[in-house]
Amino acid sequence: MENYSTLSEAINDLTKKGYTYNFNIKKDFIECTENQCQLKPEEFNIDEKHRFQEMSDVDNESVLYAISSIDGDLKGLLVNAYGVYADYASFKLIQKLSRPNI
Asked: Which of 23, 91, 96, 101 can pair with 41 through a Cys bridge, CB separation 3.0 to 4.6 Å?
């Protein structure tokens, strides 16, 4: 797993590696609106997880997840402000994002 200096550098590199879809967090699943796909925690793997913090604002922290479906047909990225999903995501989804299988 590579170490990236910036979020944009990581997104560009992972996109080149095939992580071309964008995921969003919903209550019980992650969603890819581009192909209207929903993946429950048991239906995807977290291949990589990278955390970024802006030097000018220590409270501004982001997490980038490289995600693939269990069947390998779908690979994409999920960008989230660190900890924000805890307010509305299910416990099972939070556990999956907190403990990636990488």
From this structure: 96
Strands (E) in the chain, as ranges, are: 21-22, 24-25, 30-32, 37-39, 44-54, 57-69, 75-81
What is the C-alpha to C-alpha distance for residues 46 and 67, in angstroms, rounded to an integer?
5
**Residue 45 and residue 42: Cα distance in Å, rounded?**
8
For the chain, which residues make up each domain, given as ranges?
7-98
Tokens found for residue 27: 């209550």
pLDDT per residue as tens digits for the range 34-86: 999 999 999 999 999 999 976 655 556 889 999 999 998 999 999 987 655 54
- Residue 18: per-residue pLDDT: 97
